[in-house]
Amino acid sequence: MPKRYGEMSKDMSDAVLVTGGAGYIGSHATLCLLEAGYSVVVLDNLCNSSARSLERVAQICGRQPHFVQGDTRDTALVEQTLKDHNVSVVLHFAGLKAVGESVEKPLMYYENNVAGSVSLCKAMQAAGVFNLVFSSSATVYGEPETMPIDEDCPAGVPTNPYGLSKKMVEQVLTDLAASDDRWSIALLRYFNPVGAHESGLMGEDPQGIPNNLVPYVSQVAVGKLAALQVFGDDYPTVDGTGVRDYIHVVDLAKGHLKAIDALKSRKGAHIWNLGTGVGYSVLQVVKAFEKASGRDIPFNIAPRRSGDIAECWANPEKAKAELGWVAEHGIERMMEDTWRWQRDNPEGYGV
Ligand code: NAD
Ligand code: UD1
Fold first, then answer.
1. What amino acid positions are annotated as catalytic residues?
2. Which atom of ligand 1 is closest in space to residue 138's alpha carbon?
3. Whose CA is closest to 171, among 151, 188, 189, 187?
4. 200 CB neighbour count, 10 Å cutoff
5. CB burial of residue 252 (10 Å; 0-12, 13-18, 19+)
6. For residue 314, what is the DSSP state?
7. What gap in Å lies between CA 69 and CA 144, rounded to an integer?
8. Per-residue pLDDT tens for 137-188?
9. Pocket residue to mutate for ligand 1, from 19, 24, 90, most atoms within 8 A of Cβ
10. What CA–CA distance (Å, rounded) separates 176 from 299?
């Protein structure tokens, strides 16, 4: 019999499988799930993370997730893991996310992100698990003409294989849900996740030189990088620099628990934006980080980065109405928590 987790017992004895649970967002979601009383199994191949993040999770909440080192493309392993742990819902974070790398290595991205998601769904079907929360991205909107972006805004054409892989997986999951009404699927479109756990024990640990703004700024603050390159100051925005909707990673993680609850009474595939509804420019982020850290962030104005859009922020009303979720933390808190993590862990998890 398929398990719908509306039927889960009150003590939540069924488990949640978190793919990519050792990574940045997945580890924060794992912590939230454990704190809320769920049993958690993490499946991660550690290609972009360290299992030390899960030790930190245990340090913070006193509970451990079960850890399976493995790959979403290993369908048999995933099916066995779902059965062994009596899993009833899957949070699917596992994937590759570096935009530039995806342009250089498209097959790697389509294989990992698209084929990995298909493999996961096949394993879920075989194990009788039909509840899935997928990590999508605002990148699927492409270059929208009006702000803020709501879920009815038509998906655009992402400019790179990473973005296209997210759009493709959304299509696969939408078709799957239409084909079989046992499925309940959340497509969560994240805006720009930043920040870290308030303890300073968990945060983002990018390998090599960061691609994204906030990790780059925080490495400038500790002297690992000399200066920020601001990609363009001639956009039609408040100060000419790009505007984004930055969202605290802990708020984002909590959105996943709300999505789990919302799926209990919904079949089919459902899209929710997870953002704050407020946009900040690059220079406003730099200023907020300087205030939080007390450090100067030297920067130079550089040419626009290919594929960037001028501005992007969410209308988060659908998530508020249907999930009962709103982002609680503002930009000051996002920068304070990022700084605490970077200051206390200049080498990240240290591996
Ligand atoms: P991350 O790289 O920190 O985490 C991803 C995790 O998945 C890593 O631990 C990695 O080792 C693991 N992984 C990758 N491929 C795997 C595979 N085939 N099998 C098993 N494990 C695998 O990234 P993140 O920032 O935590 O992002 C999580 C998800 O959210 C990703 O799908 C990403 O595309 C999506 N997302 C991220 C952002 C962002 O800005 N961070 C924005 C929108 C969407
Ligand atoms: C990027 C990806 C997006 C992905 C998201 C999360 C691109 C084009 N988009 O979003 O697909 O979902 O990361 O991984 O890569 N900036 C600088 N200097 C820097 C870095 C960034 O000025 O060194 C600027 C950018 O031009 C942008 C803003 O900071 O205006 C935010 O950039 P970033 O953190 O990379 O996020 P996105 O581009 O929104």
1. 162
2. 43
3. 187
4. 16
5. buried
6. B
7. 39
8. 999 999 988 899 999 998 888 989 999 999 999 999 999 999 999 999 999 9
9. 24
10. 47
**Side-chain half-sphere of 247: how many Cα atoms within 13 Å?**
29
Which one is predicted more confidently, 14 or 168?
168
Beta partners for residue 16, in sequence order: 40, 89
Residue 292 has pLDDT above 50, yes or no: yes
Residue holding tokens 């967002």?
25
Rounded to whole angstroms, the Cα distance separating 82 from 71 reads: 13
| Confidence at residue 9, expressed as pLDDT on a 0 to 100 scale | 37
- List pLDDT tens digits, range 205-256: 999 999 999 999 999 999 999 999 999 999 999 999 999 999 999 999 999 9
pTM: predicted TM-score of the whole model, two decimal places: 0.96
For residue 261, the CA-to-ligand 1 centroid distance in Å is 23
245 in Cβ contact with 86 (< 8 Å):
no
38: closest CA among 29, 47, 51, 25?
Answer: 29
Residue 146 alpha carbon to ligand 1 centre in Å: 29
Strands (E), the chain: 15-19, 39-44, 66-69, 87-92, 131-137, 184-190, 192-194, 228-231, 243-244, 246-248, 268-274, 280-281, 299-302, 311-312
